[in-house]
Write a structure and sequence with these properties.
118 residues, mainly alpha, 6 helices, transmembrane helix, SpoVA, membrane, Stage V sporulation protein AE
Length: 118
């Protein structure tokens, strides 16, 4: 069990270090960094490499933003097998809708409860 926590920490930390290097060394904007990490997660899932990473690192691979790209491609591929080309679009929305909905709802609640400084 300790090994599971260790590898989750290491893999999640490496993904974050890569993002920080993109900010500091390559001087990418947050939007470019975010988009790049999502695309990398999508590409890794397209080649079948992200699911083994999740099996190995657990939350270290599912919490970072790369997992969003993984979810998009994974959902699209699953639904494409069932419903063809229409499933590509519906699959992306179906798999990611709960996370996006939660972010919107909790962001709204946070905006109601707290006042910005400034």
């Amino acid at each position: 069990m300790v090994a599971m926590f260790f590898w989750a920490f290491v893999i999640g930390g490496l993904i974050c270090v890569i993002g920080q290097i993109m900010f500091d060394v390559f001087k990418l904007t947050p939007g470019h960094t975010l988009s790049t990490l999502v695309v990398v997660g999508a590409i890794l899932d397209g080649f079948g490499l992200y699911e083994p990473l999740i099996a190995f690192a657990g939350a270290g691979a599912t919490i970072p933003i790369t997992s969003f790209g993984n979810a998009l491609v994974h959902g699209a591929m699953q639904e494409a097998e069932k419903h063809g080309i229409v499933g590509v679009l519906t699959g992306m929305f179906e798999v990611t809708s709960s996370g996006i909905s939660a972010a919107i709802i909790f962001g709204f609640i946070g905006a109601l409860l707290f006042k910005p400084k400034g």
